[in-house]
TrEMBL record:
Family: Belongs to the drug/metabolite transporter (DMT) superfamily. Small multidrug resistance (SMR) (TC 2.A.7.1) family. Gdx/SugE subfamily.
Transmembrane feature ranges: 29-47, 59-78, 84-104
Highest taxon of source: Bacteria
Topology of this chain in the membrane: Multi-pass membrane protein
Annotated source species: Roseomonas elaeocarpi
Coiled coil feature spans: none
Subcellular location field: Cell membrane
Full protein name: Guanidinium exporter
Length: 106
């Protein structure tokens, strides 16, 4: 169950980063509210997952999902550049998250 919480928290990282961008500096209240709510839920899910997962692993997976996912959202929805070096760098983040997940019990 803890892994589902970390994954959900990471997905909510993507939501709040996108909604933060859309809030235009918190000047658009609906997007600002979504940013606050999704970030709080993400934080609490991460915190609860740490009851049974190592802190470093949980935090790294949470930020990795959020970072790589937000990177993908930026490319797909915001038209941000997807150059080879940027894609390679995001791939390294994903590889690190997978590695941490596979070695979490060691």
């Amino acid at each position: 169950m803890a892994w589902f919480m970390v994954i959900g928290a990471g997905l909510l990282e993507m939501v709040w980063s996108y909604s933060a961008k859309q809030s235009e500096g918190f000047s658009r209240w609906g997007w600002a509210a979504l940013t606050i709510v999704s970030s709080l839920i993400s934080f609490f899910l991460l915190t609860f997952s740490m009851k049974s997962l190592p802190m470093g692993t949980a935090y790294a997976v949470w930020t990795g999902i959020g970072a790589a996912g937000s990177f993908a959202v930026g490319i797909m929805l915001l038209g941000e550049p997807a150059g080879a070096w940027r894609l390679l760098s995001a791939g390294l983040i994903v590889a690190g998250v997978i590695g941490l997940r596979l070695t979490a019990g060691n």
